[in-house]
Amino acid sequence: xxxxxxxxxxxxxxxxxxxxxxxxxxxxxxxxxxxxxxxxxxxxxxxxxxxxxxxxxxxxxxxxxxxxxxxxxxxxxxxxxxxxxxxxxxxxxxxxxxxxxxxxxxxxxxxxxxxxxxxxxxxxxxxxxxxxxxxxxxxxxxxxxxxxxxxxxxxxxxxxxxxxxxxxxxxxxxxxxxxxxxxxxxxxxxxxxxxxxxxxxxxxxxxxxxxxxxxxxxxxxxxxxxxxxxxxxxxxxxxxxxxxxxxxxxxxxxxxxxxxxxxxxxxxxxxxxxxxxxxxxxxxxxxxxxxxxxxxxxxxxxxxxxxxxxxxxxxxxxxxxxxxxxxxxxxxxxxxxxxxxxxxxxxxxxxxxxxxxxxxxxxxxxxxxxxxxxxxxxxxxxxxxxxxxxx
Length: 391
Known about the structure:
alpha/beta; TIM Barrel; 8-stranded parallel β-barrel; 41% helix; globular
C-alpha cells in the first residue's frame, strides 16, 4: 500500500513520432520537429513535471540523441530514455548512458524496452523469440551494469560476449541511473524482478493493476529486492466531467471504422506483446464500449499501440481515480494527451492542484509581493487587475 498523502511523481511524454489533435486522421497533425519538441520540453520543465518519457522505435526520433538535444534547454527535467537490448552492444549503450548522464548533470533515467514488433525487431537485427529475448536481455544488462557500476566487464554468454570491456567515464548518478521497465509476460516480470527499479504498467482497470503489482512484488521479494511502481496513462482533463467526455469523443471523431479495423489487425498480427494483447482485450476494437472502468477510456487504443487508455473527467474526478491507483502502490505517473503541449498545460493547471502538486512558478514564489491579493486576468492592457482577498 502507498501513502496517498504523498504527491505522485508526475512525468510527461515527448511525442517523437509526431503529435496532433485527432487520432487516426490527417488534420491538424504536427511532425516531431525539434523546435516543437524543445518548446514542449521547456514548458513541461517550467510547469513542474519531474521528467519526460522518450519512446523508441522505427517511427520515433532516436531517444538518446533527442534527449541530448533537449537537455541543454531544460533545468530540472529528467529524461526517461528508451534503451532496447540488441540494437547495439551493451558496451556502446553504457558509453551512451554515461555520456548523457554527464551532459544532463545526472538527469538520466533508463526505460528498458525488450518487447515489440518482431518484424521491426528483425530490421534491427534481433531474431529471437519472445521469451528468449529476455534471456538475451539478462546477459546484455549484466555487461551493461558491470560497466556502469565498476568500469569493466567480461562475459562469455549464450547471446552476449564481452572480453575485457571498459568504460572510460562514470555516470553522475551512482551506482547507476535508475532502470524502469514495463512488460506483462511471465518472462518479462522475472527479468524485471532481478534487474529493474521501477515497474511500469499500462493503464488497466484497478483490479488488473492490483493483481499485476502483487505478482511483480512477489517475484522481486524472492530475489530479496524492493521495487516501486508506476503507470502509463493518457489524460483528458477539463473543468467538468461533461466537457472532458466531449473532448474524448472529439479526439476520435475523425476515426473511421475501417481505420480501426486495420490498426487492430496490424496489432494482432505483428505484435507478440502480452501487454498489447491485454490492451486490445479491454475494447476488442469496439468504439461503443470504451469506458472499461469508471473514467478509464480505451479509445486511444483503437489505433495506438502500447498505452491505449486515458483517465477522463474533471480535476476532482481524475484525482480520485489516481488515488485509487496510489492505494494499490502506484507512486509514479507518466502522462500524455493530444496535443501534448496544450494538454501538458491543462493537466498542470487543472489536475496538479487536486494532487497537491505545485507548478514551478508557484514553487519559485512568483507573486509573493501580492500574497494578500488575487490576480484577475484582464485580457489585455498594461496592468494586472488585482482584487484584495476577503479575510
